[in-house]
Amino acid sequence: MRKKKGIFLDRDGVVNRRRVGDYVKMWEEFEFLPDIFDVLPKMHEAGYVVILVTNQRGIALQLMTEDDLSAIHEAMQGELARRSGHKFDGIFYCPHDNDSGCDCRKPRGGMILQGAEEFNLELKESWMIGDSETDIEAGIEAKCKTARIAEEGTPTKGMIRGSDLYEVWTSIVGGRGVIQDSKGKIQNGRM
């Protein structure tokens, strides 16, 4: 069976607004970023399997339970389907604390590897998109392409940097954007 291509999206800061100094602990605290409703359908139409990969340390800190997280993700999937006609093909999360030593917590690539295995994905044709350098490090460890959502001038090891999900997606499908070479030098041009 031929392997498929995938896109792995971080959640907080990519799909929904990040709560600075806090965690999304209930659906009422979840606020979508607007690009997801336009970009998720485009990703599916381009043939990508789209998977959410998210660190959820709030569970380890006992600020929320796995049932709380499940309820948030169920409501998120329902609202995505209602507003865009699309939802995530899979959701993987790490409930562990920073010092747990697990393989699933980003910057480790465990969730990406698990998603690739479960959905038969070719990682060298897949992307990890996130708003923090730990997302990029996870993608690099899993050997997929990487794109970071960050303000202009933010240093990153990511192959592409864009100010929002739409800009990153446009760079991926257009092959143009802010690209860094292996020495971290930023250049504009084709990938």
Describe the SSE topology:
Blueprint: E1 5-9, H1 35-45, E2 48-55, H2 57-60, H3 66-84, E3 90-94, H4 110-119, E4 127-130, H5 133-142, E5 145-149, E6 160-162, H6 165-174, E7 176-180, E8 186-190
Parallel strand pairs: 1-2, 1-4, 2-3, 4-5, 5-6
Antiparallel strand pairs: 6-7, 7-8
Protein model, in words:
By secondary structure, the chain is α/β, with parallel strands linked by helices. It has a single domain (5-149), classed as HAD superfamily/HAD-like (Rossmann fold). It is built from six helices and eight strands; from the N terminus they run βαβααβαβαββαββ. It has an eight-stranded mixed sheet with strand order 3-2-1-4-5-6-7-8, sandwiched between helices. Helix 5 (133-142) links the parallel strand 4 (127-130) and strand 5. The longest helix has 19 residues, at 66-84. It is globular, with a radius of gyration of 16 Å. The two termini are 28 Å apart.
User: What is the overall number of helices?
Assistant: 6
Give me the oligomer status.
single chain
- Fourth-level CATH superfamily: HAD superfamily/HAD-like
CATH topology annotation:
Rossmann fold
Specify the overall morphology. globular
Structural class determined from secondary elements = alpha/beta
What would CATH call the class? Alpha Beta
Number of strands: 8
String of helices and strands: EHEHHEHEHEEHEE
Task: Tell me what the CATH architecture is.
Answer: 3-Layer(aba) Sandwich
Spatial extent as radius of gyration: 16 Å
* Largest sheet data: 8 strands, mixed
Number of domains: 1
Note the beta-strand portion. 15-25%
Enumerate the spans where pLDDT stays under 50 for 5 or more consecutive residues: 176-191
Percent of residues in helices? 25-40%
What is the straight-line distance between the termini?
Answer: 28 Å
Mean pLDDT: 92
- Order of strands, main sheet, comes to 3-2-1-4-5-6-7-8
